[in-house]
Amino acid sequence: MLLNLKNRMADYTAAFIVLIAVFICLVPFLYILSQSLSSNRAIISQAVTIYPIDFNIEAYKVVFGDASMLFSLFYTVILTAVFVLLALTVTILAAYPLTKKRLKGRNTLLLMMLFTMYFSGGLIPDYLNVKNLSLLNTPLALVLPGMMSVYYMIILKSFFQSIPDSLEEAAHLDGCNELQILLKIVLPLSKPALATVSLLYAVFRWNYFQDALFYITDQNLYTIQLKLYNVINISQQMSGENVNVNLPSEALKAASIMFGTIPILLVYPWLQKYFVSGIMIGAVKG
Q1: CA 221 – CA 138 distance, rounded (Å)
Q2: Helix 224-233 to helix 67-95 angle, to the nearest 10 degrees?
Q3: pLDDT in tens, 193-238
Q4: Distance between first and last Cα of the chain
C-alpha cells in the first residue's frame, strides 16, 4: 500500500515537472501571439504578457494582405518539401552501404564524411563554389549545398545496423537484390528514424535563412524566413499597398513571426505517430 502511494506520488511529481517545463517553453510563443493580437495602446504601454490586451487583428490583415508574403510562404513550403525528399534520398543512399562490412574502404569513406563535420572550407569558398556552378539566384542554391547532413546520416546508419541480419539473409534466399531489400524491408522497418530525420531536415530548411541571404538577391525567390529577417532586423513594415502606417512595428513583427512559425508546427503532429518504440518486436520469429 505504502509502495503504491510512493509510486503514485512520484508519477504526479514527474507529471507536474513536465507541465511546468511545457509551460515555460510555451511562454515565448504565447507572448508573441499575444502581441500580434493586441491593440496599439496595449503594445506601446507594454501591458501585453501572455494574453492579448484589447483584441486586435489588424496586424494579420496586413500580413495576409501582402501578396509577396503569401507567395514566399507557398514557395518555402514547396522548397522545403523538395529539399526533404532529395536530402532524405541522398542520406539513405549514403547510410545503407556503410552498414555493410563487405563494402571495401567503408571506414575510410566514413572518416572522410566525419571530417566534414568538424572542418569546412568556410563561407567564401562556399559562395564561390555556388557562383561557379551558376546557382546564384536559383532555388538549387538553397537545396544542393546542404542536401546531406553527416550527423543525420549517422543516425540512419545506426538504425539500419539495428535491423537483424536474419531478415536480409532470408530476403537474399528469396532472390531479392540489395535495392529490393532496402525498399521492401529496411525502409518500412525504419519509419521512426526516417520520420525523425525528415522532421529535422524540414525544420532546418524552414528556419535557415543565411544561404538565401547570401545567394539570393531576387525578391521573388525570397524564403519566408528571409522575409521575416527583413521585417524584424530592418524594423520596417513589409512592402505592399495594404500596409497600415498607424500599426506599430512590434505587432507586425509578431504577426509575421506567427505567420512563418505555424506551418512548421503543424508538421510535427503528422509525424508524431511514427515516433514509437519497439517496432522491431516480433519482426524476427525465433
Answers
A1: 8
A2: 130
A3: 888 888 889 988 998 888 888 999 888 888 988 888 877 765 444 4
A4: 39
Q: What pTM, to 2 d.p., does this model score?
A: 0.79
Region of poorest pLDDT, from 72-81, 167-176, 242-251, 268-277: 242-251
Q: Among 245, 250, 237, 233, which residue's Cα sits nearest to residue 43?
A: 250
Query: Grid coordinates representing 102?
Result: 563487405
Cα separation, 48 vs 244, in Å, equals 21
At which residue does the C-alpha cell 495576409 appear?
64
Q: How many CA atoms does the CB half-sphere of 235 hold within 13 Å? A: 2
Q: Compute the distance between CA of residue 28 and CA of residue 122 in angstroms, rounded to an integer.
A: 33
- 221 near 79, Cβ under 8 Å? no
All cell numbers assigned to 174: 528469396
Q: Tell me the average pLDDT of the chain.
A: 80
Structure confidence at residue 240 as a pLDDT band (50, 70, 90): very low
Q: Which three cell numbers stand for residue 20?
A: 511546468
Q: Where are the beta strands (DSSP E) in 107-178?
A: none
Residue burial 72-98, b: 16+ Cβ < 10 Å; e: rest: bbebbeebbeebbeebbeebbebbbbb
CB atoms within 10 A of CB 178: 14
Using CA atoms, how far residue 248 sits from 5, 43, 149, 235, 245, in Å, is 54, 8, 40, 10, 8
